[in-house]
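Tokens as discussed.
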């Protein structure tokens, strides 16, 4: 099965393309010197994206004082250019879940993904790691699940059932059905999309951060994924039964921490889940 999957996904025509506006914004922000005007020009090519960005910029998570923002250049400044790439990616790819059909639980999947992204961004600031990259990797960490469901819905339903019946993490259930798991598929997809190597590395190794080149950022997404479950946002059994302080990510990132710090982290994430749910609703609005 894995050869069949790899062959199918390696054909660029088979994988849903990343919207052109994302590539354009990645290109602009990769330069040392770029302007708000360039970003505005790129975003305005997609009127639906403009409307969604304005909604995000006016939301409580980015605009707690409620000063109305009606122009895209002001919205960019309100979000901050560092946040723009993950926000645009998050808003642009939600529509891909329509390709998976009605059985795919779009709401739970994206709320989980966006919650993980928001928590990763919060923790990145705490641990002095790059916030934009943490946010992006958090949003994309499970993209391989969506792609597997789009191409092999019956088989993925079988993997979900196996995970539930045998009390298995999703990666183990996926390997039993596909001989490959969602992290490997995620790597193939992000390579096709030509996303930065750092993001690909973290998404590929978010369940085993010690194997990543950037172990700390992968560990951060690993922890964020576990904390996301605490908020009630989870698609299946990725981190079932995992104790945060026993996780590989926690050991790498904290190198041992007091119990009070664990409690502080747990209680800090609930606002992120609320913000992420609102973000998800904006992302898949038409």
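Sequence:
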């Amino acid at each position: 099965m894995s050869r069949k999957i790899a062959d199918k996904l390696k054909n660029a025509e088979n994988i849903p393309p990343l919207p052109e506006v994302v590539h354009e914004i990645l290109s602009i922000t990769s330069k040392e010197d770029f302007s708000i005007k360039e970003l505005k020009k790129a975003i305005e090519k997609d009127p639906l994206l403009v409307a969604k960005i304005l909604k995000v910029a006016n939301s409580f998570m980015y605009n707690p004082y409620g000063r109305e923002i009606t122009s895209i250049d002001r919205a960019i400044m309100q979000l901050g250019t560092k946040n723009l790439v993950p926000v645009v990616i998050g808003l642009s790819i939600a529509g891909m879940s329509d390709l998976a059909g009605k059985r795919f639980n779009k709401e739970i999947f994206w709320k989980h993904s966006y919650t993980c992204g928001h928590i990763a961004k919060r923790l990145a600031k705490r641990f002095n790691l790059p916030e934009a990259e943490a946010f992006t990797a958090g949003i994309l960490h499970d993209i391989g699940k969506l792609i597997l469901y789009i191409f092999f819905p019956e088989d993925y339903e079988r993997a979900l059932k196996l995970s539930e019946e045998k009390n298995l993490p999703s990666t183990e259930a996926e390997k039993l059905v596909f001989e490959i798991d969602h992290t490997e598929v995620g790597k193939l997809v992000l390579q096709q999309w030509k996303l930065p190597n750092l993001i690909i590395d973290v998404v590929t190794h978010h369940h085993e951060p010690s194997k990543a080149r950037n172990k700390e950022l992968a560990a951060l997404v690993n922890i964020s994924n576990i904390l996301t479950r605490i908020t009630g946002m989870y698609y299946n059994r990725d981190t079932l039964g995992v104790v945060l302080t026993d996780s590989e990510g926690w050991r790498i990132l904290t190198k041992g921490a007091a119990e009070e710090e664990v409690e502080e982290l747990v209680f800090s994430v609930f606002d992120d889940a609320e913000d992420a749910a609102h973000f998800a609703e904006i992302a898949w609005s038409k």
